[in-house]
Structure formats: C-alpha cells, structure tokens
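Hi,

Apologies if this is the wrong queue. I'm a grad student, and the batch job for Diadenosine tetraphosphate (Ap4A) hydrolase from Brevibacterium jeotgali produced an output file that my downstream script rejects. I'm not sure whether the problem is my script or the file. Here is the sequence I used:
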Amino acid sequence: MTTGDGHGIGPEAEDAASFPRQTDGFERLWTPHRMVYVAGPAKPTDDGNADCPFCAAPSREDSEGLIVARGESVFAVLNLYPYNPGHLLICPYRHVADYTDLTADEAQELGAFTQEAMRTIRRVSGPAGFNLGMNQGAVAGAGIAAHLHQHVVPRFSGDANFLPIIAQTKALPQVHDEVRRLVAEAWGGDA
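Support response: The file is valid. Your script probably expects a header line. Output copied below for reference.
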C-alpha cells in the first residue's frame, strides 16, 4: 500500500477478492429458524418499549413468554438464544437501559432474583459455576441495549469441551419448554 506520493506504508495490500477461497476453520451449523430473529418481523429492536421483547414478555402467558418467575419490579426469563441450558435473564418490568437508572427497590430485587436464579439452577441441574453480567450499551455487546437485563449463565464442567473448540458447535441438550418448566417449578424452593 502506498501514499499518494508513492511512499510505502507497510506491506503491500492485495485485494482479498482475488485470492482463492480459503476456509476459516469453522464448520457451519445452519439455523434458518434464526432468520426470524436476525432479519424477520420478529427481530427485536432497540427503538423503545413498543418493540421491546422484554416489555412484551410479561403480557404473555409464562410458557409463551419463557418467563420463569415474576416479582414486584423484575422478572426472570429464559434467554431465547442461550449459551447453556438454563441461561436466564433478570429484567426490570420498567423499560430502562442503564443500571444506574434502576430505583433502589428494582436494584435490590434484581440482586435477589439473581441469587434465587443461581440457587434454583443449582437444584435443577447442578452447574459447576456461573457467569453473571450485564452488557451496558450496544458497543458493550448488548443485543437489546434499551432494556437492561442481567445474564445468569450456568457453567458445567466440560461445557467448553471439544465441540466448540474443534467443531465450532455448541450442544444444547434441553429444549426451552423443558428448561422453563423445571426452573419455574423449582423457583423459590429450599436451598
């Protein structure tokens, strides 16, 4: 690559389109059903609470909205595209984007629901650990940045086994209906 005056700026750049096709090492697991989420009419938007799936979920039946438990100011819902079985999201009912926008009561209940989610998932499936987190803003990885949600991701020994590493494939052994039923039935039980 050169500047306008012909001086080089490092290695010569070549047009990638002229290269023979190189594989990237990833096998493809085709999931056309995700197109409803990615490009279809059901794709979540960040345009406000009228289109927000976290605002819509509480108005549905629990099984239809994938809701596990409801509180006064927050609810627990299964992630539609989970990292692992039992991946929950703890969401305030109120459409707020930032953790600092929560009231004291919402923040307290969000914390209590996160704790109960961990207790419940331990009773249901015995994970070895958890990842907890919030992606604040689209640049931080939030798919739906306009509505705050806390991820509770159970981690199992071997969940990062050879499949994701060698085959670039994630195995999810339970379907949403089964996971939602098991977690909902165990919610609030004895530790």
